[in-house]
Design goal:
Number of helices: 20
Structural class: alpha/beta
Strand content: 15-25%
Number of strands: 17
Strand order of the largest sheet: 2-1-6-5-4-3
Distance between the termini: 25 Å
Length: about 450
Amino acid sequence: MTLSNISTDLDLNLETLIKILDYSSDEIFVLNKDTKIIYVNDACKKHYGLNKENVLGKVSLELVNEGYWYPSIFPDILEKKEPILMKQTTILGAELLTSAVPILNDNKEVELIVTTARELQSYNMLKVREKDSNHRKEMDDPFGSIMTNNEKMKDVLKFAKKVAAAHSTLLILGESGTGKSILAQYIHENGSRKNGPFLTVNCAAIPADLIESELFGYTPGSFTNANRSGKKGILESVDGGTLFLDEIGDMPLPLQVKILQVIQEKKFIPIGGNKEKKVDIRIIAATNKDLNKMVENKMFREDLYYRLNVVDIKMPPLRERQEDIVPLIYKFIYKFNRIHEMNKFISKDCLEWLTHYPWPGNIRQLENLIEKLVIVSDEVIGIDDLPEGIYNQGLKQIENSAPDSLHEAIELAKKEMVVKSYKLNKSSRRVAKDLQISQTYAAKLIREYCQGLPVD
């Protein structure tokens, strides 16, 4: 088909062109001479976890300073006024090969900048210009290593940064897998003890008869099979830093008395010893249990509970952070592609399924699932790769989502029929027979609704 034929067959207006660009798997940015972003396609969601409205109108340096990508390609292109190729890393962990081309006016001044970027796995044999990756860690990233588009979670992070400057004990509450340990480390890194050690003790993972010796250490000959030279405990090792007591609700009652003494007096006696040792530590505790109810049932010391609960922070579950699900999926795909030396992608229909799943195991469950899918799937992760329970629950959620219009209702019904039939039949010919449509139309619908799945 010639160019003239295309122009007569299609109405290539601006709206149509934008739709075409949004189908591109490559990232496309257009900036003006002030590096203000005036166009971006949908690839920005998988690379940065941002929707178009979060990007358009911003100056590129704002996003660089917020840690969304590094390094910036624009200072060089404004100075040299010639195309540049560079490797960049995004906040989600994507490694991109970015090409920037300046469009000059009649006075040889930069009028527009057009950048395209593709994930670097496709170019792993190319040597591109690269800057010190450690510099990225030094940038002014307001939320550290925690990424979110959710307003409730942003409020949590702002509050956490505020209390990080204090020295009081903190209690982080939330369901299992919500990221309580990551928040604890975020608080440590934003506080005055950031140059000191940060150590974690999982009170549920260490046997009750060992946790005391691990925390307090012991003197030589304290008990049978003890190390002859004794052992320095975690409390002493974390002096000047932060101790994170995860799953504090599982700490044995006798040990709770000793921890209370450490919090109140900043001193302890090792097992078998008779001399007190002083420590300067901050304690952050976390639990997914109802400590208040445990206090009522005499399963947790009331004095320790009130001592820990000077300031409490509640981590929202992932089901209340739906806008973070897709960015987290991409973040984990990039992570496990690197770890397992793979190059997997995910289809749009699979993304939709996963956003409708309630995630009872929260971020930990999502991360574990994505690692499994990266390992066991073919090149593109599709809905047929999902475990049956997640598929059925996602389908149930989609079915319960009420459409806003007749057109949307028809589209949802059509998609559900096509996906169900294709998952069952695995063939455009059999789908055509099942839905009583032509094989050509069946193949078209499969490509549209089951993106990334093979069509015979």
